[in-house]
Amino acid sequence: xxxxxxxxxVLQVACFAALVGLGISxxxxxxxxxxxxxxxxxWPQFLxxxxxGVSRETGLLTEWPDGGPKQVWRVAGGQGMSGLAISDGxxxxxxxxxxxxxxxxxxxxxxxxxxxxxxxxxYRNKMGDGPRATPAIAGGTAFVFTGEGILAALNMADGKxxxxxxxxxxxxxxxxxxxxxxxxxVAGENVVVVVGAPEATVAAFNRNTGxxxxxxxxxxxxGYSSPAIMKLNGRDHLVVFHGAGAMGVDPARGxxxxxYPYVTDFNCNIATPVAAGGGVLLSSGExxxxxxxxxxxxxxxxxxxxxxxxxxxxxxxxxxxxxxTSILLxxxxxGIDNVGGAGPVSHLTCVEAATGKRxxxxxxxxxxxPIAADGKLFVPTIDGNLxxxxxxxxxxxxLGRAAVAGKIRQAPALAGGLLYLRDEREIVCLDMRKx
Length: 435
Prior knowledge:
The protein is mainly β and 435 residues long. It has one domain (22-431): Methanol Dehydrogenase, Chain A (8 Propeller). Helices cover 3% and strands 43% of the residues. It has 2 helices and 33 strands. The chain has helices at residues 10-17, 167-170; strands spanning 54-55, 70-76, 85-87, 90-97, 100-107, 113-121, 136-138, 141-145, 150-155, 161-166, 185-187, 190-197, 200-206, 212-216, 228-232, 235-242, 245-249, 256-261, 274-276, 279-284, 289-296, 305-313, 327-329, 332-338, 346-352, 358-362, 371-373, 376-380, 385-390, 397-403, 413-415, 418-422, 426-431. The strands form 8 sheets. The chain has a 5-stranded mixed β-sheet, with no helix packed on it. Strands 2-33-32-31 form a 4-stranded antiparallel β-sheet, with no helix packed on it. Strand 13 and strand 14 form a beta hairpin. The chain is globular and about 65 Å long. 56% of the residues are buried.
């Protein structure tokens, strides 16, 4: 464990504030290869069925209901920043309560508890307690990652632990200063997490046995982002945004394709990489900014080249994602531009992905974490509001907003027209279907 200073800098506070249930933009491999069709009524991992924050669901509300959206159910949850995963009518998340970290499984329609599983002792951190990563569900198995880096496979039917590994200790690593925040990624027969160990920046474990399948990278800090699989230059790349940069590797074998340095204060690379404009968008807060990387092959070189198509860095950047991953819709990025360090000033911004040109900015929108469906952005904010905005690259077009919970850092989940959110105390289900 890291020793923490008695006095924390503004940048450290801001960095930790960014550790949402992050744990991750592109298809996840479950029982089908990347890009295969997934169930429209499931949200089985961080950032949804295609791991890009976008749902294929339609038929959602077009007018704001009197009093806001209808509440379907509300139940007690627990501490932590883990997001929500939904599969086959079951909701799974990680919470901290009674001095332990737990996986809890609820009926997605009623909120009734199906089971809960004790995973590990409480994870405590002066910047916030509890687990950070969002579970991933594939083939009836859930994969969870605790605050100190214990990776476990659970049977979704009853919560039985099928296997577990201390993924950080496995490679002689150390727990990241603000906790292990990578959400597991299911890729073929493996499950992948970022560990940040001296000989393993990222590692894959066989999803059936937990045996190490491959490892890649070395001497890179873990950071707090989650990997994503995306098609670049004609093939699938597993893109890892670690604490000191980004790298692309072969999802099946872990062979290194390319790397790109991207150093931020306190290793606070947190948002998930986004497949955008034919390349990879990297974005960080703390006034760091964004870059769109083009990945190209050169037969004369062993590694592929990663070069900026555009970059917008520093305090005047068009987009500074702190913990919130931007959403790509029809060639435009919709994301939260966070100003400075730990300050409250954040703007909702629309940027043309191919050029980095800002289209519009809703100033002082607040810190939020968007997903998208049916031509709309659903943005829960840190002050407990749900804001619904039409995805319009020409202007900010708000459909409505309502107070729905306490402080929300996690991205919501959407399944079967129902929107699921959680704060530090409760889990809430709202009906977003058009009457």
